[in-house]
UniProtKB/TrEMBL annotation:
Domain of life: Eukaryota
Protein name (record): Fe2OG dioxygenase domain-containing protein
Biased composition (Polar residues): 241-256
Keyword Membrane among UniProt keywords: no
Record keywords, A-Z: Dioxygenase, Iron, Metal-binding, Nucleus, Oxidoreductase
This protein's record includes keyword Metal-binding: yes
Family classification: Belongs to the alkB family. Belongs to the iron/ascorbate-dependent oxidoreductase family.
Domain Fe2OG dioxygenase: 129-301
Subcellular location as annotated: Nucleus
PANTHER family cross-referenced by the UniProt entry: ALPHA-KETOGLUTARATE-DEPENDENT DIOXYGENASE ALKB HOMOLOG 6
Residue ranges of the region described as Disordered: 240-259
Length: 319
């Protein structure tokens, strides 16, 4: 059973905890959170923040000025903090707001969690260096089509879920000989080079993301796979033993969706949620979706020097 991050201090005698040198904070080793049965590498950390922190963040996000929100896709709303990307994939930086890097300082919590939890002898520490936070708000029935976050960002992202659960689908590209039915990518969020590539219609895995959890995607799951959220009002999850798994070309298990739309999830062992675990033991868990707000923490690799003012400065420069 995973240890909620904010309770980790209570378990200091656990030899698998890593401790930060700077603050003395401790975290369970990252390997505890690795999601099995999906390509490398995804980590699911339940209860990364407390209920009070979740309420506070939702309130502060809700108080953002109206023009900060953009409507996209099927009506979901999004906001960027830390700056926006130029057409050439360069971040025009702006300072992050206090609710992200002062209280509850999620940015630093994620950075130190990754650094400390990944610090294993002989292995490179995971460093993110967050400089942009993308906030998505989904009403029940809204989702996001399969996409990659693209090469403008460091191939490691962390997503915090607030308010409601969702199910994230992981997709792969088809190779020409693959038997799985294709869907042709035409999503504008795909990077230019990926447009027109066929995507397997059957996801290779599903992840249940509960409120307050953190999902970390890295390595090939970032660089050569896609992720999506289907537009549903409710999710039906069944235990793996009740589904008929199929094998995709990567050799990973695909969980088929049955007539009712029930799916199996790859992160069931990591959920740490008694209600879901009990329901799965009984045969299925049904979750009505509420409004879900997700915060995606990432690092744009190229940043304009001098910030957004630099652009203005350059524009005003005389020849
Ligand atoms: O809401 C999420 O969990 C995913 C968001 C996402 O993939 C995106 O905005 O690119």
């Amino acid at each position: 059973m995973p240890i909620p991050i904010h309770d980790a201090e209570a378990l200091l005698d656990d030899a698998s905890l890593s401790r930060t040198e700077a603050t003395g904070e401790s975290f369970p080793a990252l390997e505890h959170f690795r999601i099995q049965n999906v390509p490398p590498a995804a980590y699911y950390i339940p209860d990364f923040i407390t209920k009070e922190e979740e309420e506070y963040l939702l309130r502060r996000i809700g108080e953002s000025p109206q023009p900060k929100w953009k409507k996209v896709g099927t009506g979901r709303r999004l906001q960027y903090w830390g700056g926006t990307m130029s057409k050439k994939g360069i971040l025009l930086p702006e300072p992050l707001p206090d609710f992200l890097n002062e209280y509850p300082d999620i940015v630093e919590r994620i950075e130190s969690f990754l650094r400390v939890a990944s610090s294993v002898k002989g292995k490179e520490k995971m460093e993110l260096g967050i400089n942009q936070v993308l906030i998505n708000e989904y009403q029940p029935g809204q989702g996001i089509s399969p996409h990659e976050d693209g090469p403008a960002f460091h191939p490691l992202v962390a997503t915090l879920s607030l308010g409601s659960h969702t199910v994230l689908d992981l997709h792969h590209y088809l190779n020409p000989t693959s038997p799985s039915p294709p869907m042709i990518s035409s999503s504008p969020s795909l990077t230019e080079g990926e447009m027109g590539k066929s995507i397997a219609a059957i996801p290779l895995g599903h992840l249940l993301l509960m409120p307050r959890s953190l999902l970390v995607l890295s390595s090939t799951l970032y660089t050569s796979h896609l992720h999506a959220i289907s537009s549903r009002h409710k999710d039906i999850i069944v235990p793996r033993s009740l589904s008929t798994p199929t094998t995709n070309p990567n050799g990973a298990q695909s969980s088929g969706i049955d007539e009712e739309g029930a799916v199996t999830i790859a992160n069931a062992e990591l959920l740490g949620d008694a209600e879901v675990i009990d329901a799965l033991r009984e045969g299925k868990w049904i979750g009505e979706r509420g409004i879900r707000t997700s915060l995606t923490f990432r690092r744009a690799e190229k940043v304009l020097k001098g910030g957004a003012l630099g652009v203005l400065g350059n524009a005003l420069k005389r020849p």
